[in-house]
């Protein structure tokens, strides 16, 4: 557009001023947002102009500060003043701009950081007339950089190992301490997971708990056993922290590792000094006492027993005095090794001091077990202890106390065992005694029975008696139960309850059981040859059922004698079956398949269930005598017997009641439809000749 020749232009100065102010205001806002101010130095008039943002950066108020170059230098950090002045004067001299970072000291004393840029204007002759520059407040950035530098320095200089992963547990970085602890350089583990250091020591439950804590609480701390690069295990105190950003998103895991292997070793050493004998490395008196005391509550709760053995070595004083303390110490070390080798892993073996040792036998079920351990220890020292090709003869005097029979506290148990040990010393040494005289008599009798039972068959001391089984409907004797007896050549008659248990513990029941079977089947064959088809019942123990050759052995006996197996009833106690039901079912089904009858003895006293009972191939259920004795007086017993009979009938099984001693018993059982009876009402067990007379002379109305 062209203006006319004579046109004039009118400018509204107020509007122009408005737009200039608006533009200037926008410039100041932009500077404030960017933390950048500008300045101008008039070198002709020696005046310095600062924008508002420069004043703010220096912490000054424009009205209170007269801006000059010299005044500006006063707010530069003293350590940076010469550098800033040199940069400025050099740039003027060499006619170029400059860029410099330096520190300032604000009016309130705070230290800040600025970044300055400057350009100069020169006249035609090259004389500087003006300097124009900017001041950028970089305090925040520099502080962040310094914090990062400090954090990096701390990260590298920390004595604890630090491992950082991403959210997927991929290793991002590790510090030098971690590399020193683990043996892995950073480049060897970068991108891998911390599983690299797993020792395999901890189970899945441990790691499930660890991650559960991290997920719920944001961190976990505890002790772990890890593996170094060279394969060595080490104990570490580990703290794992989950990091989240401000939006709650997981960003990293930080693991702080402190190798405490040396600390644990020192703790172990201190523990050993406090609780273990330095010569033999066995538990000492303090630890032994703690273990005894700690076991008593559980033993009391579960009604279990514990035995303490107090062992004093015979003739140690002579060895120590004659050959010196060094030899005496070696002797005790060898003695400790020998005794320890005879004990179970769970038994506690300790040295109280000198030549005194103690043993805790846990969960004692029989005094036989205790005596067996004592015998082993005494037998070991029938041979000499060898030290540097020299033989040293000794013995062991052992006193035994039992919780809770003899005492119920540590002090009393120790006193009882110590007393029993001194009785051994006074009686000739190299033996053992229980604290109570009754125990000593009991174990003496037990050992006599065990030893003599081995020869009872060869010496013809065992014999059988038979108790008749009567059928009330047919009013006849239909069978007999074979019962073993022992007529000891010196003691006389020994009841089965005194030797059957021992024979099971020692394994002699296998030989005795086959002897019983052979004798009983032979006697039954005699009746069959006479035309009387009696059934014989033979008791079978759980030990026999556990014997892999039992089925073949008893089948061979029957085949040799020539009796039909359907006339042989094998009685197995209910509690024996329930010890190992699955195995018992296999053996019983095999015997049933061979043609034997099977009977469950003492029914109702064990812990059987109907689910197993219906699977058993038993033809007969024998009601235990404990339910029969009061059946005519006690409504509960009568109800139990009635229920057993009904259950047996529903399962298609026969029922026989033992322990029928009175006419009232027999009448009640008959009323309850139990017609097979065994008990003293008809006859006590009889030897074969008397039994034969009873059978052929039997009458009952």
What does this structure look like?
This protein has 701 residues and is α+β, with helices and mostly antiparallel strands. It has 26 helices and 26 strands. Strand 1 (36-42) and strand 2 form a beta hairpin. Helix 15 (437-453) crosses helix 16. The radius of gyration is 50 Å and the shape is elongated. Mean pLDDT is 86; it is low at 1-13 and 18-24.
β content, as a range? 25-35%
Number of strands: 26
Q: Strands of the largest sheet, in order across it?
A: 18-19-21-22-23-24-25-26
Work out the radius of gyration: 50 Å
State the low-pLDDT regions, or none: 1-13, 18-24
Largest sheet properties = 8 strands, mixed, barrel
**What is the tally of helical segments?**
26
**Class of secondary structure makeup:** alpha+beta
Average pLDDT taken over every residue: 86
Helical residues, percent: 40-55%
* Spatial separation of the terminal alpha carbons: 152 Å
Q: What characteristic shape results from the CA principal axes?
A: elongated
How would you summarize the topology of this molecule?
Elements: H1 13-34, E1 36-42, E2 47-50, H2 52-58, H3 69-74, H4 81-94, E3 98-105, E4 111-122, E5 128-137, H5 139-157, E6 161-165, E7 171-174, H6 176-182, H7 186-189, H8 204-217, E8 219-227, E9 233-244, E10 250-259, H9 261-275, H10 285-302, E11 305-314, H11 316-323, H12 325-340, E12 348-353, E13 356-364, H13 367-380, E14 385-387, E15 390-392, E16 395-403, H14 410-426, E17 432-434, H15 437-453, E18 462-471, E19 476-488, E20 492-494, H16 496-506, H17 509-529, E21 535-540, H18 542-546, H19 550-561, E22 568-573, H20 574-579, H21 581-594, E23 597-603, H22 610-613, E24 620-623, H23 625-628, H24 635-650, E25 654-658, H25 663-671, E26 676-678, H26 688-696
Parallel strand pairs: 16-17, 19-21, 21-22, 22-23, 23-24, 24-25, 25-26
Antiparallel strand pairs: 1-2, 1-5, 3-4, 4-5, 6-7, 6-10, 8-9, 9-10, 11-13, 11-16, 12-13, 14-15, 18-19, 18-26, 19-20
Helix pairs in contact: 11-12, 15-16, 17-19
